[in-house]
């Protein structure tokens, strides 16, 4: 009697172990397929065309890449949640902060510059001292410039309006590069979809 | 089953708190943004009982408990909102570089790498590393056993070695030279200096845990704003696979294999804690040579023969496992002479 029971017990245990081993192998294969068999993540095209938009106060690109700890403190401090991070497979910029102004722009709260522990974002108090990039109007796409209508969205949202951005006839925007801080609020507000008619150009090479 | 030792209990409590803070920080950041936009009550209502909504409810309860604000969200006064906001903005970053109510604590490895890559002093970082440097110099590698969130997670996944044994797959025992980590640290710092990029942060598990938690949670909240509620791995990156690989290797080949032999941060802490003042010491007269401490040691050390060395992270597993109370924390800058002497 006891011999028979222990036999059955051993058989059950062996079956259970086999099933668990199969499940483990299946889970590993499935996870690998899900990760490397899926479609590649889309890369933000706009940013690739105009250069990386860094948070305010960022040092020049080589110094910034060296100093930044990749600690996510700037994003935790950010008021608009506009700060994103490059994924680890993105090469030398991996883990560093950037902004996609067309999706969500910086409102120049400058909190990130004050919390950065490494000084990769130099502390700033005055929004006019920020130099993130320069907004450039694409006159072929802008509805005020090409005669489709009179918009004025970029001028309305600009935190330095009438200094960095002025309006002409039919709300035609003109950027004054020496005053523009490159926050990207105009790019986010622009009513032209897909490719915005006003974009922040930074000159920070995207590699 | 014996009740857990007070030492184990306090260590686990600290580890759980650190992990909880790591997870709470991105949620608190999002909470602060909704609060400052006067959108919090609406966001909580819209997110309902999804994980995002529940976590916002939790942070709301936490912040109200901390600040003592009791008015409902719709009737908040400016002073109430300012108090809640100040509390919500009290925590930032992860263990790689953390700020808690104005005090910044930076991992010495982060500061070392940043300074090496910048080829300057980066003196701004100094105020943040003072406290960890001081603590490590006095107490040794305690970060690894008491604070490191990756170490805690690896402790938990390490429990699966029991499952391996149940499957009659014998857990392996790979022995790596414990000097490998110093080699990795030196190579990493040299490479950072040459490349002008901090490189060790990409293979340092606690930094990766902090970044993955941040990216995963912010992606979940971003998706929730677009109407996609529920859990999502969209924000997780290849770093998660690296962490998983480390966890699987530790399950298959030996406890704390990474920490013991490869972790560059552990190497730095080992060096800094070389002349620590607090160490675990054995009283040979009480030791009955049972070997329980050797089996309990996660770092693969041998307390029974006084072999602690630089890897000891002060976790206290040997102390709690000792049936005769022969092991205890003692003051002393130098290691006991390895007598290997056995009590009578």
Describe this structure in words.
- The complex is a heterodimer of chains A (207) and B (344).
- Helices cover 33% and strands 10% of the residues of chain A.
- The longest helix of chain A has 35 residues, at 2-36.
- In chain A, β4 and β5 form a beta hairpin.
- Chain A is elongated and about 100 Å long.
- The mean pLDDT of chain A is 86.
- Chain A is an alpha+beta fold and 207 residues long.
- Chain A is built from 7 helices and 6 strands.
- With 344 residues, chain B is mostly helical.
- In chain B, the strands form 2 sheets. In chain B, strands 1-2-3 form a 3-stranded antiparallel β-sheet. Chain B has a two-stranded antiparallel ribbon with strand order 4-5.
- In chain B, α2 runs antiparallel to α3 and α10 (180-195) crosses α14.
- The radius of gyration of chain B is 23 Å and the shape is globular.
- Chains A and B meet through α1, α3 and α4 of A and α1, β1, α5, α11 and α12 of B.
Q: What is the SS-derived class of chain A?
A: alpha+beta
Rg of chain A is 26 Å
Morphology of chain B = globular
- How are strands sequenced across the largest beta sheet of chain A? 1-2
Low-confidence stretches of chain A: none
Strand order of the largest sheet of chain B: 1-2-3
Distance between the termini of chain B: 29 Å
Strand content of chain B: 5-15%
Topology:
The complex is a heterodimer of chains A (207) and B (344).
Chain A: H1 2-36, H2 45-50, H3 61-67, H4 73-77, E1 83-85, E2 97-99, H5 111-115, E3 134-137, H6 153-157, E4 165-167, E5 173-175, H7 185-189, E6 198-201
Antiparallel strand pairs in A: 1-2, 3-6, 4-5
Chain B: H1 6-36, H2 40-47, H3 51-67, H4 78-88, E1 91-94, E2 97-100, E3 103-106, H5 108-118, H6 126-139, H7 142-147, H8 149-158, H9 161-166, H10 180-195, H11 205-225, H12 238-253, H13 257-261, H14 264-272, E4 278-282, H15 292-296, H16 317-321, E5 327-331
Antiparallel strand pairs in B: 1-2, 2-3, 4-5
Helix pairs in contact in B: 1-3, 1-4, 1-11, 2-3, 3-4, 5-10, 8-12, 10-14
């Amino acid at each position: 009697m006891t011999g028979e029971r222990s036999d059955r017990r051993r058989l059950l245990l062996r079956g259970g172990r086999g099933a668990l081993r199969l499940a483990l192998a299946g889970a590993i294969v499935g996870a690998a397929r899900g990760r490397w068999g899926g479609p590649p993540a889309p890369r933000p095209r706009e940013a690739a065309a105009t250069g990386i938009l860094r948070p305010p106060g960022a040092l020049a690109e080589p110094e910034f890449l060296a100093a930044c700890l990749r600690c996510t403190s700037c994003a935790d401090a950010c008021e608009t949640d506009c700060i994103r991070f490059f994924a680890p497979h993105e090469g030398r910029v991996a883990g560093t902060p950037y902004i996609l102004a067309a999706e969500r722009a910086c409102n120049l709260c400058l909190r990130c510059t004050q919390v950065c522990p490494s000084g990769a974002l130099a502390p700033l108090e005055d929004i006019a001292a920020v130099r993130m990039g320069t907004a450039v109007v694409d006159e072929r796409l802008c509805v005020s410039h090409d005669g489709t209508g009179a918009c004025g969205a970029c001028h309305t949202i600009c935190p330095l309006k009438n200094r960095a951005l002025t309006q002409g006839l039919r709300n035609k925007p003109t950027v004054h590069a020496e005053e523009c801080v490159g926050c990207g609020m105009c790019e986010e507000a622009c009513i032209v979809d897909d490719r915005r008619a006003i974009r922040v150009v930074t000159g920070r090479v995207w590699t | 089953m014996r009740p857990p030792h007070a030492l184990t209990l306090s260590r686990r409590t600290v580890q759980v708190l650190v992990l909880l803070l790591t997870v709470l920080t991105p949620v608190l950041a999002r909470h602060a943004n909704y609060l400052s936009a006067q959108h919090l009550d609406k966001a909580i209502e819209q997110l309902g009982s999804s994980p995002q909504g529940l976590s916002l409810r939790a942070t709301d309860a936490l912040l109200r408990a901390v600040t003592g604000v009791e008015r409902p969200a719709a009737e908040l006064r400016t002073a109430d909102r300012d108090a809640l906001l100040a509390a919500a903005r009290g925590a930032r970053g992860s263990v790689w570089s953390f700020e808690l109510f104005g005090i910044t604590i930076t991992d010495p490895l982060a500061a070392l790498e940043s300074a090496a890559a910048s080829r300057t002093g980066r003196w701004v970082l100094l105020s943040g590393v003072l406290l960890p440097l001081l603590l490590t110099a006095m107490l040794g590698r305690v970060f690894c056993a008491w604070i490191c969130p990756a170490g805690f997670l690896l402790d938990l996944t390490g429990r699966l070695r029991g499952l391996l044994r149940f499957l009659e797959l014998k857990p392996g025992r790979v022995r790596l030279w414990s000097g490998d980590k110093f080699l990795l640290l030196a190579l990493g710092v040299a490479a950072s200096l040459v490349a002008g990029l901090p490189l060790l942060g990409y293979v340092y598990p606690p930094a990766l845990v902090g970044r993955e938690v941040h990216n995963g949670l912010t992606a979940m909240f971003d998706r929730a704003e677009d109407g996609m509620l529920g859990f999502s791995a969209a924000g997780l990156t290849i770093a998660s696979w690296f962490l998983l690989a480390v966890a699987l290797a530790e399950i298959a080949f030996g406890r704390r294999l990474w920490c013991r032999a490869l972790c560059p941060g552990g190497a730095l802490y080992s060096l800094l804690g070389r002349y620590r003042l607090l160490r675990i010491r054995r009283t040979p007269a009480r030791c009955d040579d049972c070997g329980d401490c050797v089996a309990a040691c996660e770092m693969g050390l041998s307390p029974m023969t006084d072999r602690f060395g630089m890897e000891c992270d002060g976790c206290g597993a040997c102390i709690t496992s000792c049936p005769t109370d022969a092991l205890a924390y003692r003051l002393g800058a130098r290691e006991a002479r390895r007598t290997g002497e056995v009590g009578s």
